[in-house]
């Protein structure tokens, strides 16, 4: 074989050209790096530093020369932002212009840069060393440009997985909306495992509601109840007719027999009095005012049938075992009066007479309705024994924020393609994104939809190691047995109170250590006739009409189970000098600003005249020393009291109410 | 043929280059989520930091100082001396003063002890937010 060798002359030319190219590239790199923006930025910083600091501080300051980076191997990140943001952790640069300004707030104290870097919170391209490459603004081909401040809380949520993350109000509000709107009924959402959402069971709906109401409700729930949690499913007239026929055929359990009730004798004025006395508005709003745990009652007369309401008030758990509604101990006459009052007072002017009971059913409508019920996933929220539980109808949102933004629909508008914008539009207007959607329209305001989108955008297949993630365990259900357990169910204690974080949040008092807080005699009396401890709090404990034996059962249980040993072993032998010092402190600290004593003082905190008869001393002292330990976000300030001062105040407070000071009806104002 | 093709290629290249340059400008795609949040901020006339302070103010301060800081909270009538109107008080312009009252209570600046110290209950961050909101209250009137 003959091998062709290039002629030496040509080889030289090739080498020379390559060499030249190499020199050119090398010099360009040198020039480029030598004149990089960040060098000029650092030079300007040194000038600024000389004006901000005195010579001594300057001598102490670390030299600023060259690239600066934070390497976080466990996060797989290298952040070079500090190359230009040179004053970021130096308070001396608080008012300096960017990029030299120090970080606002105390975020770097709680999130030091050597552990968190920059891009964990801010996004952007941490390895870049110039403004544009770092993606301070959205750019083509950069998946995660820096977040504007407005949406930064989505990144808080990547680590802070509790439902109430601190100092991130938009994220917290978004998560609250997700819980309250029942998103978890249809979607699996990581971080919300402990949350359940149920609409009312529908097994006996045929006995419960008026047919006319049901039609209007299915067409648009908000037309009956603007605060409705049920979304608008955009049903056709045929679908509504089918569902109506199907649902009204659900008559599993007839209401309790009320044939003996003489409705002509119903006394609505007595019903009105009961409505106030039982404190129904703690949970149910009327005309926009009142609690939100139960349904608003403003137009209840348009909705439910008389026999059903009578039966429900008599025994709510029979119709619906998991209802948060409590079972008052009332006579049939009282229930009759209350029923008549509710139906007469809270209705539209054009509500017709009570419709006759339904005895018919249209087999074709029932079949149609059953199909719609299954297709639209009604069973995800509403239990119905005749329909098998099909689980969640919506897709899992486990990796919603990881989806490719360019493959998602955005409707007709010109929208920047981000998963957040997609989620926002989907939550706001589910049916306008170009593909038919099963998701109902919930009628969120844009601001609320934005917060929900932020909360969902914080859920991604985490690139953060577990050591960064703060995720509280969902509380363990508390289900006591025996007579106490029956009373807890009957009176719905856990609808408002919590034990170990499980239960409701309406009450300001968790029950975990209630036996060490309250004196037993007071507790029993309070259960029988709950007064107002906090005058300004609108939601009150209902007046159950509880039997004395029941109050005793509950008290005994509290006194033997819900105890805190640290509080119990407090030595409560006080001297008169303690009491006198406590009384002085009471005025010096300004306790009267919030607490009433007799007729004097504010009504933010509990009224204190009867404290000696109400609270155990160990609890008073512990609470005064560290209120936040027992209740986050409490309005009781932490005065940094010494044990001796807390003891003096305790001595003074326990003397109230056990002597003549309490007489004169200090007890319960209003 | 070749002589006719070159201008064509040049034209395509020019179009591609100009297209690349023009594309981001011409689209100017919207950011509806951001718009919604900004609209809410504008409606409240508060910055992000101030609106955080507003939420804390509603929780800790409004019972006495009133929702808008006018000194007309529901508990105000029980207090002697009454809480000041923060929207007209000159003291809110003094950041250090406001911070001191919030963290150490009104007694720390030589006033009545009726406004309690919150420095041990609130984080430094939360105090910053509250200070910012108090200053915003003063701004809206001055």
How does the helix and strand content of chain B classify structurally? mainly alpha
The overall pLDDT average of chain A reads 89
The main pleated sheet of chain B reads as: none
Compute the CA-based radius of gyration of chain B.
27 Å
Question: Which protein chains are joined by the largest interface, and how many residues does each one contribute?
Answer: A-B, 52 and 46 residues
Broad shape of chain B: elongated
Residue windows where pLDDT falls under 50 for at least 5 positions of chain B: 17-26
- Share of helix of chain A, binned: 40-55%
Number of helices of chain B: 6
Distance between the termini of chain A: 114 Å
Biggest pleated sheet of chain A: 2 strands, antiparallel
Q: Count of DSSP helices of chain A?
A: 32
Shape of chain A: flat
From the N-terminal CA to the C-terminal CA of chain B, the straight-line distance is: 77 Å
Describe the structure in your own words.
Chain A is built from 32 helices and four strands. Chain A has helices spanning 8-34, 37-52, 55-60, 107-110, 113-116, 119-122, 153-159, 169-180, 183-186, 205-208, 211-219, 221-224, 237-248, 268-277, 300-303, 306-314, 316-319, 332-345, 363-375, 419-428, 446-457, 482-490, 493-496, 514-517, 520-528, 548-561, 565-568, 576-588, 611-614, 617-625, 627-630, 643-655; strands at 70-72, 77-79, 498-499, 502-503. Chain A has 670 residues and is mainly α. The model of chain A is unreliable at 659-670 (pLDDT under 50). In chain A, the strands form two sheets. A two-stranded antiparallel sheet of chain A has the order 1-2. A two-stranded antiparallel ribbon of chain A has the order 3-4. The radius of gyration of chain A is 34 Å and the shape is flat. Helices cover 41% and strands 1% of the residues of chain A. With 142 residues, chain B is an all-alpha fold. Chain B is 59% helix and 0% strand. Chain B is elongated. In chain B, 34% of the residues are buried. The interface between A and B is large, with 52 and 46 residues.
